[in-house]
Amino acid sequence: MQRPIALRPLASSRQQTSQSHGPQIQSLQPPRAKSPIKQVKPIYKASAVQIPPKPIRRSEPAQRSDNESKPESKPEHLSAMEPQPSFDPGPLTFGCTSILGRRNQNEDAHLTFETHEIQCACVFDGHGGPEVSTYCVQRFPFLLKAALSEIGTSIRDALKYAISELDKCILQNWAFYEIGCTATIFIMEKLSERVHIANIGDSKTVLGFYNRVFSTLDHKPTRQSEVNRLKKIPKSFISEQNGISRLNGNLSLTRSLGDAYMRQFGIIADPEFYEFAISSNEAESKVNISNIESDQQLYQILSQQTQQLKYCILACDGLFDIFTPEAVDDMVRSMLSNKVINLNQTPEWFLKTALLLFHDEFDSALQLIKKQRAGNQMAQVNLQQMQQHPKIVAKIESHEPTKRIGEVLTLYAYLSGCTDNITVIVGIIQ
């Protein structure tokens, strides 16, 4: 199935109202003709909508004293928060990378943890602030473990329960009234070798199978099934601003955790579930992808057959607003094989650049990009910034393959013009 070229236009989950500082950054695509700014026009329903007021505060929160220090950073992993019992490790090795990028604060949060039965990885991409994504990292593992151990339900039902309870807790906290986050959650069952994914919003999980790639579907105002759902909500409308479709002129997604003020307009926290049977058999699955017309149809076919999993990638839209899942797949396979592997018709120079970054040949990678992007003036600005301060926002320094691959992906996305936070989790089958 033919796929678009590697680079995508930039997008942001929440409408930015303040002007950014420094040079303006754009994606590395052929320049488009400029058009005058237009007023927001509803696509299918116009309605004068006002954001409802915040809930009445029943009590004021405790004020932080002047001599009480504010935490400087949030924990990346549950394992850093509490001692974990010993058990046999699962088949996946995870590496996590998160960078601030060109934002003032990092609103992303990520998490990996393991029990006797499962391995789990999560990426939560916050908007409106980092509070909800941070809360999810702190609370979700306990809700999931409780569902699995105390309720004794299936993985899918446990995920559904944990996400529902997590969302309820967020909605009950008035401090989170105008804050939310997306979520992509990956679980590998150790014994049955089954993979489960729950996705909310526009973060993605990408699975690299033996001979093809699969990615979760985004919940955006451009997805027809979401448009059909929103049409049934009286106060809801979809508008386009600067080429980006937004729900009621605000969020560029249609599902999220939190965002209480947007619930009346159609935002929901219902996850979309995916499940695959995994095997160590390297035999190629017999799927004729030439006749597949949609990603949903591809999932229905792949989920009916046992697949050999090579790796998994969980990332926020900071990565996938720049690269397609197919381009990420080719980059990861190339770095794992230490040679250009092109299953998805990604330009060869693009993959060679990833390999140069993977081997810490930064100057050579810059020269290759300059050669390919000679006519893009804004791309040259990006390159000059990175050449002057290559180690400030992103580093490639880990010797662990999983983390190093994540570092390459985040740096390459930043170098390609990403203006968002970028968080990537890479999992490789041992």
From TrEMBL:
Q: Where is this region: Disordered?
A: 1-90
Query: Signal sequence span per UniProt?
Result: none
Compositional bias per record (Basic and acidic residues), positions renumbered to this chain: 57-79
Q: Where is the composition biased (Polar residues)?
A: 12-29
Per UniProt, what is one GO molecular function of this protein?
protein serine/threonine phosphatase activity
**What domain of life is recorded for the organism?**
Eukaryota
Q: Which InterPro entries match?
A: PP2C, PPM-type-like_dom_sf, PPM-type_phosphatase-like_dom
Query: What sequence ranges are listed for the domain PPM-type phosphatase?
Result: 93-429
Name the PANTHER family for this protein: PROTEIN PHOSPHATASE 1L, PROTEIN PHOSPHATASE 2C
Protein name per the record: Protein phosphatase 2C
Q: Which organism is this protein's natural source? A: Hexamita inflata
